[in-house]
Design brief:
The complex is a heterotrimer of chains A (275), B (548) and C (328). Chain A starts with a helix and ends in a 7-residue tail after the last helix. Helix content of chain A is 75%, strand content 0%. Chain A has a single domain, classed as Orthogonal Bundle (MetI-like fold), CATH 1.10.3720.10. Chain A has 10 helices and no strands. Chain B is α/β, with parallel strands linked by helices. In chain B, a hairpin with a 2-residue loop joins strand 14 and strand 15. With 328 residues, chain C is an all-alpha fold. Chain C is 77% helix and 1% strand. Chain C has 13 helices and 2 strands; from the N terminus they run ααααββααααααααα. A two-stranded antiparallel sheet of chain C has the order 1-2. Classes of the chains: A mainly alpha (275), B alpha/beta (548), C mainly alpha (328).
């Protein structure tokens, strides 16, 4: 554990990413304390530029942009984490079963995964939300449904490779049950690539969520960064900060997650210093 | 015969290693001379620095961290270590050529053989495309490749390993270099293919009066083709001289121990004849075939890995299965252990019909057959401590944690490892130690039959000798019945009471070790023995030992 | 001859798989159709209230909304097979015609993005690998990290703010100046001028992706034994890079590019919306706005077909590029 931490810390961009991510998380968690009132409330004149009375100014309806950002953080992180968790669970299960048992089960599950991967995922998400009306739950479902195939493929590949490794054969020859082999021997050895991929999936989920809310497909009762940008489009010539600032927030959050993911990758898979 | 003048002279070469490596130098203060019209074999175990030294001649180091720091390498009056990059490129392939160990990865997979060899010409000489093509075809014929036209147009993955290595030799020799550096060129080949390629190298060398620097770890190969020998250990040159002298009158202790570790090509003295002993393992009618990928191939490529194989092992006996790669010996071992399901056949372990058991009964009875695997790096779970790896088997079958742990410590002692090893992880151990751990794990469940699937093939020869000795001790002590799979006839002779020879999925010969060695009946067995490198030397050694 | 035979069989097999995929999608569409709020016929007619009453009665009869589900499904499958995807009153033409009319601009955009991103990715990735751990490599890594994290729609908006509004170099939206009635080369130039910002915006993410992939791939190739063999033959570093490494290293990038085609379609939706580019993506947005589920379903269906065909073409081209890949 200590070795892992020391390797992570050596990767400076990853540490920077972690710091930013912790800040964003802190803001998200503390939002109700910092700004108890609803972010949808009108606080002043519309289109006030930033660094005036309000830190980030106001949007076209007179809402406080800083408040909107705070509450948007909650939505973004929440959706990103939950959607990814679901996608990871589904992907690992399907991929693991396919890779371990092989044969017909593998063929069937892989056909299923291929079909899902062929479906143009963004259009599908849009369609799903158009039909089911946007709400947080539906957004999470839509994102999870399109995110699991890459994880399934990765896990299947890993399990398939592990299945033929001699230490797994040794387990089989000891009379070990399949469940024990998978949980105690194969999974721990594939965990590092799953964790790294999962962290990158969170970033992707956030990008998808913000694009969906930009198009107007977010839950109307919660504030979302993409929504602010989409709503502010009409005033882009004059009040461009309404679009710019939330975008920077998205960029920083996604970038920090990617950096942390890279740091995790280096820390979990130390490439042996070969000659 | 007056010795030829030195063609290549390595003087006090030192190659540094980066700071994180386990020693300062890959090669330390090595001086060696290579003369025209001779084969100089540089022999050593892994980590001896022989490959690094060979690569330094053409400055082909694989990493920028491993660079020569002192010494000279003189060729035709100039120091190659000081030569410009331009000059080195001019020499490479035209005056000094090199071939490598693994021909599959040493050739570009997306270019045809012909193109790659023609490129070797085009880099140095101007020829018309037609001339180049003809020159390549002539060379492919010279290395005895059948159907040079087809080979010319083929991609590397379409031809066999032996053919690839011949193609590499053709590519190296096409511009008639003075010196050929061969870095373990036959290590990845089957023994029969190896014999052919060695003969080819010898023939080419003699015809062109080339100097060949041949790197290898196999003393049999050395005995087969060397004119002179140099022995390396830990980056230093330990001994060198004429082949005869080194092989028969080694001076240095290390050379002597290396030579002693190479088993003779002779049957070990028979233990006892096992007549009347109970049967530990009886296999009959074993079948296994694999369908080649792609249903659209003409005559769906079916590979018969095992055709009607029968094996019997009596209590306390060691039966060996010997064969080249593709013979099916590993498949048979896996089928018997039911790590792979055979298509048909009976497998009886003692009284139990092992072949017909299913799910729960199978899992409970699996402890009767345990396997020691080949790859010391892949056979142990990297995330488990050694102690828990060994104890896991007994615990699954009902032993308490303390009882299992005690057993693990017992076994560690049995295989010659310290009790403290139990809390360490596999990556902290050497290859030989890991095989001992693998053995301990296999013995933890007190099996009736132990299958050893090429257990020493991945080890250095001195370590191999230790592990084989350990195995011999343990099987005596515990009265183990062993099925020993190997491709190495020397090892088989040393360890096995009876030997089965496999080829293309079938057992072509079976008998007591002495019979198979001294009077083989099947022509394939005879070919196999004839192909073992250094056979004559081994026979002389055995004879000398008898008479003394 | 055997090769051609194998090739044809392979195509047949892949097409079969593609057909299954499309069938699944059609069934999915059918399910979504019935999940949507309102009567299925309402949905099929497009926006509520836009269709004439007589058309509505026709629709209801045609679908036999009192018939059991599987009969309806069968009828739906038949309609889709004949590419009868409905009629859009708002636009005044059949859905199929509408979609086909908008396909061109989207394909133009996507092909341009593909060319730019793959080309740049391969070039920049090679530069980064050859300058390992020096400043070009670090700079490219940083830029890639930024581009990777930038939401496409935001990048587009910012590009408009900077390059169109503030600097006035490029138009803010649309594919061409319709009022100018350009012909021939002038028209091409005009479209190209409008294409610049949307194409570059969408390419950003993919350039970052392919650059990093190519960099890793080039480093992998240089570690391979055949590079040492090439050096042992006396080739210069330049020859090795060009003749040996490049082709092997580019293969994984092309593989990835093929896989990303579906994602590219999604990106097109966003980019076309931001830039008012008159393609399928913008059509999807408009139908979203107008709650025209039927049109959306049609777009989804056509896009899926497109992805299937592209995947097949990509697979075939791999087997041409990499001799190790056997058509199985």
């Amino acid at each position: 554990m200590r070795a892992f931490l020391s390797r992570f810390v050596r990767h400076r961009p990853a540490v920077l990413g972690l710091v930013i991510l912790l800040m964003v998380t802190a803001f998200a968690l503390l939002a109700p304390l910092i700004h108890p009132a609803s972010p949808f409330g009108l606080v002043g004149r519309p289109f006030q530029p930033p660094f005036g009375e309000y830190l980030f100014g106001t949007d076209q309806l007179g809402r406080d942009l800083a408040a909107a950002l705070l509450y948007g953080a909650r939505t973004t992180l929440l959706i990103g984490l939950i959607a990814t968790t679901i996608a990871v669970l589904v992907g690992v299960t399907i991929g693991g079963l396919a890779g371990y048992y092989g044969g017909r089960l593998d063929a069937a599950l892989m056909r299923l995964t291929e079909i899902f991967q062929t479906i143009p995922f963004f259009l599908f998400a849009i369609l799903l939300l158009a039909v089911l009306t946007p709400s947080i739950v539906n957004v999470i479902i839509a994102i999870a449904v399109v995110s699991w195939p890459p994880m399934a493929r990765l896990v299947r590949g890993d399990f398939l490779a592990m299945r033929d490794r001699e230490f797994v054969l040794a387990c089989v020859s000891m009379g070990m049950s399949n469940a024990r082999i998978i949980l105690r021997h194969i999974l721990p050895n594939t965990l590092s690539s799953i964790i790294v991929t999962a962290s990158l999936m969170v970033a992707t989920a956030i990008l998808i969520e913000s694009s969906l809310s930009f198009l107007g497909l977010s839950d109307p009762n919660v504030m979302s960064w993409g929504f602010i940008i989409g709503a502010g489009r009409t005033a882009i010539r004059t009040a461009w900060w309404v679009c710019a600032i939330p975008g920077i927030a998205i960029l920083l959050t996604v970038m920090s997650i990617n950096l942390v993911g890279e740091g995790l990758n280096d820390a979990l898979n130390p490439r042996l210093r070969t000659l | 015969m007056t010795p030829e003048p030195d063609l290549l002279s390595i003087e006090r070469l030192t190659v540094d290693l980066p700071s994180w490596a386990d020693r300062r130098h890959a090669v330390e203060d090595v001086s060696l001379a290579l003369r025209r019209n001779e084969i100089l074999c540089v022999v050593g175990e892994s980590g001896s620095g022989k490959s690094v030294m060979a690569r330094s001649i053409l400055r082909l180091s694989t990493s920028r961290h491993v660079q020569p720091s002192a010494g000279r390498i003189l060729y035709a009056g100039e120091d190659l270590l000081e030569a410009s990059a331009e000059r080195m490129r001019a020499l490479r392939g035209s005056r000094i050529a090199m071939i490598f160990q693994e021909p599959m990865t040493a050739l570009n997979p997306v270019l045809t053989i012909g193109r790659q060899i023609e490129e070797a010409i085009a880099v140095h000489v101007k020829r018309s495309p037609r001339e180049r093509r003809q020159q390549v075809l002539d060379m492919l014929a010279a290395v005895q490749l059948p159907d040079p036209e087809r080979i010319h147009a083929s991609y590397p993955h379409r031809i066999s390993g032996g053919q690839r290595q011949r193609a590499m030799i053709a590519m190296a020799l096409i511009l008639e270099p003075d010196i050929l550096i061969a870095d373990e060129p036959t290590t990845a080949l089957d023994v029969t293919t190896q014999a052919q390629v060695l003969a080819l190298i010898r023939e080419m060398q003699q015809k062109r009066r080339m100097a060949v620097l041949f790197i290898t770890h196999d003393f049999g190969v050395v005995a087969e083709i060397a004119d002179r020998i140099a022995v390396m250990q830990h980056g230093r040159l330990v001994e060198h001289g004429a082949a005869q002298d080194i092989l028969e009158r080694p001076q240095h202790a290390y050379t002597r121990s290396l030579l002693a570790a190479v088993p003779d090509l002779a049957p070990a003295p028979a233990r006892h004849d096992f007549i009347g002993a109970a049967t530990a393992l009886k296999v009959s009618g074993l079948q296994k075939s694999y369908r080649g990928k792609g249903l659209f191939r003409a005559a769906a490529r079916v590979v018969h890995a095992a055709k009607d194989v029968a094996v019997e092992i009596r209590r306390g006996e060691t039966v060996g299965i010997v064969g080249e790669s593709g013979s099916g010996k590993s498949t048979v071992a896996r089928c018997i252990a039911r790590l792979v399901e055979p298509d048909a056949g009976e497998i009886r372990v003692g009284e139990v019909d092992f072949g017909r058991l299913a799910s729960r009964a199978l899992r409970e009875n699996r402890k009767r057959i345990q396997t020691v695997f080949q790859d010391p790096y892949g056979s142990l779970d990297p995330r488990q401590s050694v102690g828990s790896l060994i104890a896991e088997g007994p615990m699954i079958h009902g032993a308490s944690a303390e009882a299992a742990r005690r057993r693990a410590l017992e076994l560690l002692a049995l295989v010659g490892l310290d009790a403290r090893s139990a809390d360490r992880f596999p990556h902290e151990f050497s290859g030989g130690q890991r095989q001992r751990i693998g053995l301990a794990r296999a013995l933890a469940l007190d099996p009736d039959v132990l299958i050893a699937d090429e257990p020493v093939s991945a080890l250095d020869v001195s370590v191999q000798a230790q592990v084989l000795r350990l195995l011999a001790e343990i099987r005596e002590r515990l009265g183990l019945s062993v099925l020993f799979i190997t491709h190495d006839l020397r090892v088989a002779g040393q360890v096995c009471d009876s030997i089965a020879v496999m080829r293309h999925g079938e057992i072509v010969e079976f008998g007591r070790t002495e019979t198979v060695f001294n009077a083989p009946s099947h022509p394939y067995t005879r070919t196999l023995f004839a192909a073992v490198p250094g056979r004559a030397w081994s026979q002389r050694r055995a004879a000398a030992r008898e008479s003394s | 001859m055997g090769g051609l035979n194998r090739g044809l069989r392979y195509v047949a097999r892949r097409l079969a798989l593609g057909v299954v995929t499309i069938l699944v999608i059609v069934v999915l569409n059918f399910v979504l159709l019935h999940l949507a709020p309102g009567d299925a016929a309402d949905v099929l007619a497009g926006e509520a209230g836009a269709a004439t009453p007589s058309y509505m009665i026709q629709l209801r009869q045609k679908f036999g909304l009192d018939q059991p589900a599987y009969v309806q499904l069968g009828a739906y499958l038949k309609r889709v097979a004949t590419f009868d995807l409905g009629y859009s009153f708002r636009h005044g033409m059949s859905v199929t015609d509408l979609i086909l009319g908008r396909l061109g601009p989207t394909l133009l955009l996507m092909l341009t993005v593909f060319a730019i991103s793959v080309g740049s990715g391969i070039a920049l990735g090679t530069v980064a690998a050859r300058n390992l751990n020096r400043w070009p490599d670090h700079m490219l890594s940083m830029l890639a990290i930024l581009a990777y994290a930038t939401p496409v729609f935001w990048a587009g908006l910012m590009a408009i703010v900077v390059f169109s509004i503030k600097l006035g170099w490029f138009p803010t939206s649309g594919m061409e100046q319709i009022a100018a009635f350009n012909e021939g080369w002038a028209r091409v130039a005009d479209i190209a001028h409008h294409l610049v910002l949307p194409a570059l915006t969408l390419s950003l993410f993919y350039i970052a992706l392919y650059t990093r992939l190519m960099r890793a791939s080039v480093l992998d190739q240089y570690a391979m034994d055949y590079v040492t063999t090439a050096r042992a033959k006396g080739l210069t570093e330049r020859q090795i890079a060009r003749r040996h490494v490049l082709r092997n290293a580019a293969l994984p990038v092309l593989t990835m590019a093929g896989v990303q085609f579906g994602g590219l379609l999604g990106g097109a939706v966003v980019v076309e919306t931001v830039f008012g580019w008159p393609g399928l993506g913008l059509l999807a947005y408009e139908s979203l706005f107008a709650r025209d589920i039927n049109l959306l379903l049609g777009i989804f269906f056509i896009s899926a077909c497109l992805v299937v065909v592209v995947n097949l073409l990509v697979d075939l081209s791999y087997s041409l590029l990499d001799p190790r890949i056997e058509l199985t």
